[in-house]
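Write out the 3D structure for:
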Amino acid sequence: MVDKEVKWTRKDLLGLRDLSAEEIKLVLDTAKSFHEVSLRAVKKVPALRGRTVANLFFEPSTRTRISFELAEKRLSADTIHVAHATASFVKGETLKDAVRNIEALQLNIVVMRHSSSGAPHRLAHNIKASIINAGDGINEHPTQALLDMFTIREKKGALKGLNVSFVGDILHSRVARSNIWGLTKMGANVTVCGPKTLLPPGLSDMGVRVTTRLADAVKDADVINLLRIQMERQEEPFFPSVREYATAYQINRDILKKAKEDVIIMHPGPVNRGIEITSDVVDGPYSVILNQVTNGLAVRMAVLYLISGIPQVSTTEEVT
């Protein structure tokens, strides 16, 4: 990668498909500065003082919502939380009109999760406020992929040349899609694995290796990122039974013997213990799942900071 000064010029963060490798690196480097801020005795900084952020979550969320809320508070932003069940949407108001009403209150940034793929993109074209996609349907989840890449880089030193395998429900996973776009741009070798019915067409065109054999995905892997079976997005079963799925695709200590000795295990959560992964692996030395949660705060602080349009510091400088 050619070293050059990169500035964030995008109004929104909608996905990693359209980001360049340089832009991804800028986010990761900025997150490193905010990670260092989080180690201070006083963790709050005035970077977003005077800015207003609205959190619109139309799907259930724990980790992502709390992570964004804490990131906003750490940056000294004013925040608005809109719950779908209590909002005017249930009275028939359109998303566009509702957010425009909120924007009239001098809203700067909208963090949005929606069950419809492309919803944040449509909104971004209709309002002046910046949009951060916190997950849209089965399309993308950019900040989850960025925190995954940050964690890998933290543990492995670099992304280029690493063998990263995703195992599970690839078909319904916005996390997998964002990670594929991001990791391949950063030079990693990506493998996806799952039952044939949970592997969407066109994966090979995204530059990844595809297999239905868990042993093939685990062999020589530097990183294994597990994805839960998303029953809530399945109108009909994609495999005979959960027990059969676990028999063929569960990560446990026996299958990990086929991986590299320093392999790391990741999971975006929530974890279904005993299905895609055993408890001893979740809580064992290979797991960096809690590191992902911690790093999510720094990454989301970085995204909010860059999106806000505040004059940026060099990625080698500390954010104060």
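Residues 147 and 165 are 16 Å apart (CA to CA).
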